Amino acid sequence: METRTVMKNKRSIRTVVTVCALLIAVALTAQDQYTKGMSKAMDLWGQGKITEASNLFERIAMAEHDNWIPYYYVAQVNTTSAFGLKDEALLRQRLDKAKEFVDIAKRIAPDNAEIVVQEAMINTAWMAFDGATYGPMLSGKNMQLYNRALQLAPENPRVVYSKANWDMGSARYFGKDTTPYCKDVERALELFATFENDTPFYPSWGQDQAKQVLEQCKG
Amino acid sequence: MKNLAVLLTTLLAIWVSSAQTTINGMVTDKAGNGISGANVYLEGTYDGASTDENGAFFFETGETGTQTLVVSVLGYDPHYEMGDVSYFQKLDIKLIEAINQLTGVTLTAGTFEAGDNSKVSVLKPLDIVTTAGALADVVGALQTLPGTTTINEDGRLFVRGGGAEETQVFIDGIRVFQPFFGTAQNIPTRSRFSPMLFKGITFSTGGYSAEYGQALSSVLLLNTIDVPEMEKTDIGAMSVGAQLGHTEIWGKESLSFSTQYVNLAPYETLIPSTQGVRWNKPFESIQGEGVFRSKGDRTIFKLYTSFNYSNLDIDQEDINFEDFVRFRLRNNNLYFNSSYKHFFESDWGVSLGASISRDTNSILVFDNDIENNETAGHLKAKVSKSFSNRFELNMGAEVFHTNFEENVEQPDGFSFESSFDDVLWAGFLETDIFFSNDFALKLGGRVERPSVLDELTISPRLSLAYKSGEFSQFSVAYGDFYQNPIRDVLKFNRSVTSEKTSHYIFNYQYLNDGKTFRAEAFYKDYDDLVKFNTQFPQFDSEYSNNGSGYATGLDIFWRDNKSIDNLDYWISYSYLDTERDFRNFPEAATPNFAPKHSFSIVTKYWADKLRSQIGLTYLHGSGRPYDNPNTPEFLAERTRPFQNLSFNWAYLIDQQKILFFSINNILGINNINNYQYADAPNNVGVFERRAVRPAADSFFFVGFFWTLSDDKKSNQLDNL
Q1: In chain B, positions 552-571, which contact chain A (CB-CB < 8 Å)?
Q2: Own/partner pairs for B82-86, CB < 8 Å, 24+ apart?
Q3: Any domain includes A75
Q4: What is the DSSP pairing of strand B167-171 with strand B218-224?
Q5: Per residue in B313-355, pLDDT tens?
Q6: CA B398, CA B352: separation in Å to the nearest integer?
Q7: Which CATH architecture has domain B111-718?
Q8: Both ends of chain A: CA-CA distance in Å?
């Protein structure tokens, strides 16, 4: 009798545990939908499926109104894929989309340096496409954006690196020495080593590019 | 208990994996062609897919019940479909092409735009500063566009056979009453604005919107910058003076000001002007301009103000007098312009604007002392509503008030006063309808009632545009335009009525990859022009509205900044055939300000190695009519053609320091603007004449411009 009761209790405990585990699993699945969706979008991006990746980031963004990260990625996918495009219509489509989403991201997170850097990247893509037309129009704007980003997050490695890279580009254009900015790149690399942010899918690019630039500095 | 657990588990399993519903279909355009890359999804979920190259899409969802399916892709209006998920199968979704401001048809007949974003931009704001011969004058740069004629000794805008007073200038939609510096006869003037405070310039050479009136020929619309890019200080040292500008930004507010001091005295000492003039006191001016802006999420407030004091004292040759005739001018001008715009969520927009100006002149001519002042104001309220991106309505009301007083004191002690006071009410209503990306219509009308003339005018305006190909479009425009007679008439006579023109415009434009081609044919019908029976309007002249005239012609523009690396050039040609009977003309004739052919070519070459921009501008105008009283014909003779080659060199010492050098009329061509004939014949019965020539053939300019960004970090680059 005694044993049976124990047995029965054990069984019911097991049931409770099972149910609880299941509930947690369900909850996790629900929470993980974001992780799953974002990972899938990242995969698509990795496979070079720009439209699919952008569309999925956009769907996630549209369902997560107060999270700037998916908006940021819509902008980033469209900006990075616009570099090197020769077709102006397609370039404009991508960069306009990027700008639209960066603007929403800015509204969600007004003082976020990552978004400011992303906005400057869009301008850089325009300038890369047609320097004569967009250079005079946007270079001042970019200088202002990088300064603002640095003000907001002086310890952010992407900010430090992006600004240094921009300054180097300007110096090169005006035939000036670019080496003073190498130490900024070095500093960016040091910051990359220690920079941490727990937010899932927080931007993490830049380290490899910075390394390459530093190599050019040394070479 | 166990059973319960099983049941729960099963239920949860069902809930988790859920019965997946399949959603599929096709997305096509109006013609049935598949649209690839469209984003199809259930609103508020991650469930969705992109369409493939045929426009087909397919995805599964765990959602149930009523959902909204969204289809979105650039270039098309988004599509929403509401219903139970189970019905979202084999969907056939047709998307409607979105009206694209950037690549779609634009209503451009008659207008030239200069701006950063407008696709119809023919000039960028920077072009104004870097066009050789323009000397950073907005109007100087516009004179290289077709439809304008360079009237060398005047400096203002003469558009399609119209006089300078037929063009009106607006800042942020609000009228500027004295856009040009005061000057002496035959000494060209400049516009009062510093080009860098403006982000966009629309120059209409005809057929413009019902929003603007009181201009028979043309309107020049200047828009101040909404949000300046950065804080900076501009310092300039020039051979003719100095300038200082600064921009300060506090979050959403910003203030820019620009001051300038110009004095031609040192230049005149070095290189004196000798052709028919003697300066007692060369042109001197002190000028300040400022813009305060406050931009909210849905509002923009701007206050623009300018102050200007200028003076000059000159002796000029006159065929009727042995000695030079003295002319002295002191001008004070104060101008305020404020505008407020509010954009409501419901696509309603309201803008309110007001301007007020006070202009006083103290003039000494032929020993007459003339003191005059004009106080003028403009109030305007405009409402616009976008019903969709296909249909937009604009309407508004405005009132202009002008008060003018003049007192002339003659050397004999006799003096007389004249004045007028006009309140002009106007209302306008206009719609923009985009039938598709290929076909658009602007239709509107304007009503005006000037109190001084006691009449009511109604002017219809119409403009149509059809996109004939990916890069080309045709437009037509028609409009009636009324304007009060000039001040010199109104101060003596009120029985006259408004002068009138009708414009008919046909335009073709081709835009592709840095290349712009425009051809515009026009016909202008002038009516009710004011006539008087004395050489100049006088208090005892007889006035009538019996004048009339026409102007017809062809304007051609070509700009290319792509074909040759680092070279940007534009070519303009205007053909103008015009005759009018107005003022004191005995018969219809081509006026002195309307040469038949005008040609200009502007080139800008960026020399990378020299870090320099080198510009050349060549202007050519065929001979201008003048009247020789020794012949019976009226205005039948022509001066020799006008030619001018100007050169400029902008050297970038570094990113923020520019050395600028320019020569106007580098070849020293001896231009003759007109001939002045004696009022009476000499003793052998011949009217003697003298050539009216520019005070100096050539003009040199050297300037050093230095920009300091407020942020010290960005100055590292300059090793300062």
Answers
A1: 561, 566, 568
A2: B85/B21, B85/B23, B85/B42, B85/B61, B86/B21
A3: yes
A4: parallel
A5: 999 999 999 999 999 999 999 999 999 999 998 889 999 999 9
A6: 10
A7: Beta Barrel (2.40)
A8: 84
- A122 and A176 part of one domain: no
- Token readout for B196 is 């860098």
Is A203 inside a domain boundary? yes
Q: Which parts of chain A register pLDDT below 50?
A: 1-2
Q: Is residue A1 a part of any domain in this protein?
A: no
Q: Where in chain B is the domain with CATH 2.40.170.20?
A: 111-718
Looking at CATH, the fold of the domain delimited by B19-94 is given as: Immunoglobulin-like (2.60.40)
Same domain, A123 and A46: yes
Q: How far apart are the C-alpha atoms of B256 and B254, rounded to whole Å? A: 7
Same domain, A108 and A161: no
Q: How many CB atoms within 10 Å of residue A2?
A: 6
From-to residues of CATH 2.60.40.1120 in chain B: 19-94
* B37: phi then psi, degrees, rounded to nearest 5: 80, 10
pLDDT score of B1 more than 60: no
Phi, psi of B148 (to 5 degrees): -110, 155
Q: Which residues of chain B lie closer than 8 angstroms to A62, CB-CB? A: 41, 43-44, 70
B319 close to B677: Cβ distance less than 8 angstroms: yes
**Dist. CA B104–CA B165, nearest whole Å:** 35
Look up the domain containing A193 and give its range: 154-219
Å from A207 to nearest chain B CA?
24
A121 and A180 in a single domain? The answer is: no
Whether A119 and A166 map to the same domain: the answer is no
Q: What does the pLDDT look like over A55-86, one tens digit per residue? A: 999 999 999 989 999 999 999 999 999 998 88
SS3 category, B606: strand
What was the ipTM of the complex prediction? 0.80
Of A37, A59, A140, which is closest to B230 when you measure between CB atoms? A140
Tell which residue, A25, A82, A26, A27, has the closest CA to residue A50. A82
Any domain includes A34:
no
CB B502 within 8 A of CB B524: yes
A172/A212 same-domain check: yes
Q: How far apart are CA B666 and CA B651, in angstroms?
A: 19
- Is A209 in CB contact (< 8 Å) with chain B? no
Counted domains in chain A: 2
Beta-carbon contacts of residue B469 (< 8 Å; ≥ 6 apart): none
- B572 Cβ contact partners less than 8 Å away, ≥ 6 residues apart: B144, B145, B146, B555, B556, B557, B558, B598, B599, B600, B601
Predicted TM-score of the model (pTM):
0.81
Given CB atoms, is A26 within the 8 Å cutoff of chain B? yes
**End-of-domain residue from the set A81, A112, A128:** A128
Label residues B661-674 b or e (16+ Cβ within 10 Å = b).
bbbbbbeeeebbbb
B contacts of A172 (beta carbons < 8 Å): none
The domain spanning residue A85 has which CATH number? 1.25.40.10
**Which tens digits make up the pLDDT trace of B353-370?**
999 999 999 999 988 999
